Amino acid sequence: MMPLRRPVGVAAVLLAAACSCVHAAEKEPQCGGVTADPAAAIQVCTRLIEFGSLERPDLAKAYYTRGTEWANQGNPDRAIPDFNIALELDPKLAAGYYNRALAWSAKGDGDRAIADYDAAMKLGPTDPNAWLGRAAEWITKADYKRAVADYEEALRIDPQSWSTYFGRGRARFYGGDFMLAASDFYRAHQIEPGIYSALWLFLARKRANIPGEKTLALEAGTSGAGSWPAPVVALYLGTASPDAVLRAAVHPDATRQHDLRCEASFYIAQWHVLRGAHDQAGQLFREAESTCPRTFIEREGAAAELRRLK
């Protein structure tokens, strides 16, 4: 799975906020003091909220922290009401808008996510995360020019961000500017070398009519042997078939196999595109779009390619 995911991407790390409030039982962990156990953290925050003696700022932090824990459990429907109350209590809580935006995004409500990213930017204009989050929403809406603009603003804040170069590269790739996309993927790969950035760099180069096979194995760190996604590298190098990639995507864990199959569909579809077999590519892109989790960049990539094929 490629991160970014959304990050996704592009991608999106939930912020933690410690509540400085005082609880009657002094030995009990404070809200925000429980780590790696969202259920226990939710219980602690709930007791603090229900105790009824918190001052307004600490009560806002308690609701905010419980909201982040609900989000960590993958429950945006419980997280959003807590963020709502936290922001009513403290309208200047930039992290509250940012995390509520992530929750709206998880529910597929891009318009509300963008509105919250806008609010987070006004309160914290030097934090690149809101720009990255909004850029990811613009990609979902196929507004690649706005996505590129947001990534560029994030780069002005942090010019050494792997995720921002990789995100801008994807926006440019989807928009058809393969040469500049290759430049962004190359820069991302320089900052943080990885097999996925090598794969996207290869694809951008090939779509820009730049040979990439000679450098793919070196940049990916594999000639195609090894664990996933090494079999995709072998496919692009011409040493493996699409069937071999599908066999490599078989996994004893059903969830993991589902994710690997989604990725296999996307990267095999790209192989067909490079060969001019658009019908076969379209079928696999449709499979990737319908089966890949929302946070996978292969899903957004499949949607962009289907728009291009139309």
User: Major beta sheet, specifics?
Assistant: none
CATH structural class of the largest domain:
Mainly Alpha
> Radius of gyration, Cα only, in angstroms?
21 Å
What's the mean pLDDT score? Answer: 89
The count of β-strands is: 0
Number of domains: 2
User: How many individual helices?
Assistant: 16
Q: CATH homologous superfamily name of the largest domain?
A: Tetratricopeptide repeat domain
From the spread of the alpha carbons, the general shape counts as elongated
CATH fold annotation of the largest domain: Serine Threonine Protein Phosphatase 5, Tetratricopeptide repeat
Computed structural class:
mainly alpha
Proportion of residues in β-strands: under 5%
Order of helices and strands: HHHHHHHHHHHHHHHH
Query: Which bin fits the share of residues in helices?
Result: 55-70%
Distance between the termini: 27 Å
CATH architecture of the largest domain: Alpha Horseshoe
Low-confidence stretches: 3-28
